[in-house]
Specification:
Helix content: over 70%
Largest sheet: none
Radius of gyration: 22 Å
Strand content: under 5%
Structural class: mainly alpha
Order of helices and strands: HHHHHHHHHHHH
């Protein structure tokens, strides 16, 4: 088989992505390797193969493919995001944050990037940044989840922003009404605010 023109290459890449979405990673690699061999400037093929490598936990290979895609076309925000995520998985926090920042320069409304960066800041205990990024992620439409609001609440607690922490933990309870830690943390926040009655109320609910 051979690639007859660029349209054929694009169709092959699309097929490769379809195989990725179906979880057929070996077949996807076979197709994307074929495209890269014949069309080495096909940026989407490098991104696709890098994504497969990342899913297979071949993180060094993934970084290499994303880096080549960025070299070929540095204006694609998604590539910076994926390389940033891969750097984060490798524990390279500095490069991860740098790449995610560049992704936001190119696409400032990407809720997922704010969420991903907030997760990294949570790992390194930069709770001010956690609060900023999680709030941005929610503003831009990231899917609300109990664990996101819980981490936001924890970050606010560590910052001493007890009123904001209560609001975040209340969102946790709206999603998961049996989340005992959320009730307990609301009680702790009210205690810090000097409201003993409310504190006891929520401590009791956590039991």
């Amino acid at each position: 088989p051979h690639l007859t023109d660029r349209t054929h290459a694009d169709n092959c890449v699309a097929l490769g992505y379809s195989e990725i979405n179906s979880g057929h990673y070996d077949r996807a690699l076979e197709i994307l390797n074929f495209v890269i061999k014949h069309e080495p400037n096909a940026v989407s093929a490098w991104i696709g193969r890098g994504s497969v490598f990342a899913m297979q936990r071949k993180l060094i290979e993934a970084v290499a493919d994303f880096s080549l895609a960025i070299k070929l076309m540095p204006s694609i925000a998604e590539t910076w995001k994926r390389r940033g995520q891969t750097y984060a998985a490798l524990g390279n926090i500095v490069n991860a944050l740098s790449d995610l920042q560049q992704a936001l320069v190119l696409f400032p409304e990407d809720a997922d990037v704010y969420y991903q960066r907030g997760m990294i800041y949570y790992q390194i205990h930069n709770y001010r940044k956690v609060k900023q990024d999680f709030c941005k992620a929610l503003d831009y439409g990231v899917t609300p989840a109990a664990y996101l609001f819980y981490m936001l609440g924890q970050a606010c607690m560590d910052l001493g922003d007890y009123t904001d922490s209560i609001q975040a933990f209340e969102e946790v309870i709206k999603i998961d009404s049996k989340h005992r830690d959320a009730y307990c943390n609301i009680g702790s926040a009210y205690r810090e605010l000097g409201d003993g009655v409310k504190a006891i109320e929520f401590f009791v609910k956590s039991l």
